[in-house]
Specification:
alpha/beta, 12 helices
Length: 356
Amino acid sequence: MRNRTIKLAAIVAVFLGAHGTVTAQTEFSSTIYKFINKANERENLDDVSRWGYRAQEWRMEAPNKDIKSVDDIFAFRWMGGPFRNVGAASELPDTSYVPTREGLDHLYLSGSSRLSDKDMQVVLPWLKEHAGDMPIYILDLRQETHGYVNGNHVSWYGYINWSNIGRRREDILREEDSIFHSLKGQRIVVGNISGSNNYVMTNAQNLLVDVDSAWTEKEMVERYGLNYLRLAALDHVFPCDYVIDQFLDIYRSLPERAWVHMHCQAGRGRTTLWMSFFDMLRNPDLPMKDILYRQTQLGGTSLFYQGKRPGEQKWRVSLFTETSYLVPLLYAYVQDNKQNGYSVPWSEWKRQKFGR
C-alpha cells in the first residue's frame, strides 16, 4: 500500500506541486485518503438529509428563443475551436502554457450548456456538417430531472441542484417519463434562474406556463434523429464510483468513429470534467497537463480551481478542492488500463489501489 501511495503522490506532484498547491508526498497521502470516498458517501445520504435537497419548483433554464448560430449557445465549444486565454483559462496555474493540439482532430467531441428546442434546430445542422457520415450521440450528463415544456428546457429543481442525489439512472429516467408525460394541459409555475446565485430557490421570480407540449430530452433528441445517452452525474462534484463505471460503459459502447456532444446544465463543471476524461481515454499517451489545459482553453472551466475567487460560496470551495485533488486519479486509471482497453471498472481499480 505504501508503494502505491507514493506512486500516486508522484502523479499528483506533477499536476499540483509545481504550482505550490501540494509539495510533500506525506501531505498528498493524507489528503487523498481524506477525499477518496467522499463521492460515494455523498450519494448515500439518509432520508432526512436527502429531504433537504428535494425538488420544489420548475426552473426555466433555456428559453425557446431564436438564435443565429452555435456561438449564441452558452459554453458551446468543439475540438477544432481556438485556444483562448480568457475566462477560466486566465486562472490556470501557468497562463503562458500552450498545450498541444495532438489528437484533437480525431476526438470528434463538442460540448455546451443545456439546449432548448430552437437551440437543437441550430445545433443539428452544425453537428451533421462536422460529423459527416459518423453517427451523432448527445450525452446528457445531468442527474437532476429535466426536459422540455413548450420547447423550453426546464428542470425540476431542488437546493443546489441535488434533487436526485443518491438515485440511480434507471429510477430517474422512469420518473422523468412519468412527470413529463403528465404535464400536457396543465398550468405550471416556472421560476427564472436567479441572476445573483444560480443555486438558490427563486421563489417570487415566477412565470405561469400553460403546457402545450412536454417531452423528455430522450424524446426530443430522438425526434431529431440523433442518439441519446444519459449519465446521471451529480452537479458540482467529483463523481462517485458508480457514475465513473457508467461512463466507461458508455465509452466502450461507442463506435470507433462517432461524434459525441456532451452537455450538463451550464456546460461548465460536469461537461469539462467528462470531456477531459474522454480526451484522456482517447489520447492516453499525452501529458495530463496538456489535456486539462486545452479543455479549459477551448471554453471549459478549470479543473485546477479550488474555489478561491472573491465571494465564492463556502459550500462550493470544499467541492472544488476535492475535485482538483481527485482528477489526477482519472489520469492514473487511464495509464494503468490503456493496454486492456479500459476493461477494468474504475471501482475495481480504485479498490486495488486503495483497498477500499
